[in-house]
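hey so u asked for the seq, here:
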Amino acid sequence: MSQASAPATTLQDIISHAKEYGFVFPSSEIYDGLQAVYDYGQNGVELKNNLKQVWWKAMTQLHDNIVGIDAAIFMHPLTWKASGHVDGFNDPMIDNKDSKKRYRADQLLEGKAEEYEAAGEPEKAAALLAKMGALLGAEKLDEVRELIIEEKIVCPISKTLNWTEVRQFNLMFSTQVGSVAEDSSNIYLRPETAQGIFVNFLNVQKSGRMKVPFGIAQIGKAFRNEIVARQFIFRMREFEQMEMQFFIKPGTEMEWYNTWKDTRLKFHKAIGLPADKLKYHDHDKLAHYANAAVDIEYQFPFGFREIEGIHSRTDFDLKNHQELSKKKQQYFDPELGEDGKAIGNYIPYVVETSVGADRLFLATFCNAFTQETGEKERTYLKLHPALAPIKAAVLPLVKKDGLAEKAQEIANSLKSSFRTIYDDGGAIGKRYTRQDLIGTPYCIAVDYQTMEDNTVTIRHRDSMEQERIAISALKEKIGYEVAMERILEAI
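ran it, structure tokens below
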């Protein structure tokens, strides 16, 4: 079958398929939803959990010096003072006076840079991004507005240049802790999971007798009051992060930064994202805590966008927590230096890897969404077998003559090894299609020959080829293909 004439996948294709087949639903949809908040359906939660599990194994199982924690969402308010979020966690916003719509100033300029790239003018794009980075870094917001007007960037709705001044908006959600209003205190929903790792640095190091270099991994929810939330689950107000902070000796940060940069790209390729849809993007404007930063970007239907960031955070976080808490955040290194003496106490530097679970889900889903044309048109999700929500579906040819009972027996025998379902509703061709649409890699057909010789037909999702094998060989054959080890071996 040829895919050459298949229509280009749009974001709307992805959104529609995700809802119709139980992957992602708008939150509170019966009340017309809540902007930039989504729920994962029965198939979506399986895919997302599989992505989280393989990330967790890749971090904590493949590395002897990385362990995991699960820190609380609520943290002492001074945590966010030390991290810089209270004073500096802002987005530059601009309003169009005619449409009354609000935009992120940096995204308007980035969009213009993409237009230059598409027009074959990469130098113009690079110059624009560099200028924007310098202005934002220097907090010259009035000049950012002037740059938007100079580049003739109009509001997509009003088509005018009638812009307000650029203002900074803090993105943290605040709430109260305490049973009585007058006794309550303001705290924040965490805007990132990293600080839960930093404040537990010494707890983990001492209790686990960890030696630098070592890492702490965490998967958890974070919350940001995005003013301009868009592009489905790519940018949400409630999202999930998979982060690892790697603590190292000062002076070794660039070596480890490059190591993790390579390691994380291998991970994305191992789960099935193609090399030609992945690229590095070095930051033009560094965050206040970083001395080097790069994004791994994936080519979504709406262009290349970040799915993971690798940052050299220096000793910014631990140093600030030490100063504000008055508790030493130092590591005693017993190794000998060049003079033969113990290196002694120091605050470790940190290299961070931070991937958005929701963005990784969206990249995986977009990449898997396949529309074939030719003799027979077909839509299916080409997911890595280890990531598929359901690994195998057992389908009796008909529901009579004992075939249904035999198929149910086979399904029950496989359930303890991998996610297996039984389906006898409708013609078998339609059942194959249903499984294709949710990405099930293997369909097991039970027919009259099965009753005679205990063999079944396995249909492969991607090729639609079929092979006859013994029931006794199913668990080993399918179990091998759908195991997480197949991904971990490729990293």
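The longest strand covers residues 303-314. The mean pLDDT is 92.
lmk if thats what u needed
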